[in-house]
Amino acid sequence: MRRALAAETAGDIHRALALFHEAWQLDREQEAAMLGEGRLRETIGDWTDAEQIYTHGIAYPALAPHALKARADLRHREGRFNESLVDLEQAIQLRPSEVAWREQLAHWSTERGNWIAALSQWRRIADLAPHRVRPEVLRALMLLADDADPVQAEIKLGNWVRQSITRIAQSPGR
After folding, report:
1. Are residue 38 and residue 104 in the same domain, yes or no?
2. Is-above-0.85 flag for pTM?
């Protein structure tokens, strides 16, 4: 592993790839080797091989959380948002206390307009690491999540954004 990292640091990508691959073939539980080979495959633009490496790593319990996380990041960069969300959710199920992963899922959910999923993650983050959650974010998401259900909120679908912004602006403690 040290030789692979040294080759990568020196910029010898092809040698580093060979050494990471060799290390992973010798020890399939070697997380750093799997992640290193996948990361370098991404660096050289070989995203298909990188995804295959991460997918293969998921089969090994010790590697699965980080392999799922790496594959989620790769799929998100490729614009495969739904698949990336599923991968990240599965990684979090395996490592529920990974606050940074939960924050990433909350951000991705917000980007996709899934207020309920984002709110759920921020509430869990508030339980795990309260100092990382801004109360106004929770309040805004609570208002947006409420509006995400047109039956419960009794609103018309076309007005939900305007109404949400109005509710946020009018809420006490702003």
Report:
1. no
2. no
